[in-house]
Amino acid sequence: xxxxxxxxxxxxxxxxxxxxxxxxxxxxxxxxxxxxxxxxxxxxxxxxxxxxxxxxxxxxxxxxxxxxxxxxxxxxxxxxxxxxxxxxxxxxxxxxxxxxxxxxxxxxxxxxxxxxxxxxxxxxxxxxxxxxxxxxxxxxxxxxxxxxxxxxxxxxxxxxxxxxxxxxxxxxxxxxxxxxxxxxxxxxxx
Length: 190
Hints:
- This protein is α+β, with helices and mostly antiparallel strands.
- The protein folds into 2 domains: 112 residues, no CATH class; 67 residues, CATH 2.40.50.140.
- It has 5 helices and 5 strands; from the N terminus they run αααααβββββ.
- A hairpin with a 2-residue loop joins β2 and β3.
- α2 crosses α4 and α4 runs antiparallel to α5.
- The protein is rod-shaped.
- It starts with a helix and ends with a strand.
């Protein structure tokens, strides 16, 4: 096999080197991901960036570069075997590599969006129907508690009302708004 490789011209030799090296790294990262490791374990600096929730779509990452070089190399080899000129081979392999990077970046971006932080967002309670648990004083005179379903889970939250009368335990209510510190403003549901 080494005789075959060393008998190649420089241009195909470069493409074969890129394709083989990219494929080996790709296979290694894929296997390590499936056996419980992560590609981040052997020098990927993406983990620092991924921990920052301020960055969304990441185009240049270690994984994307591995995908780029793997597809760049193999598409270049296919072009060389098809008899394409060197400039056309370079252009096609660059386009294929960039398409691969875009696909991988989009894939990881959308997979990352599937994760849930678990943080309760009080604004999701607005217009939800619930039930008073502990009496809520009229005209915001005393804080009570209400059971309201937020983000798929029943929560017991502090509540106030602008109603003229106290809202007693068991009263069916609707959340009108939320204060800045997360207290529900509720009203009796008619």
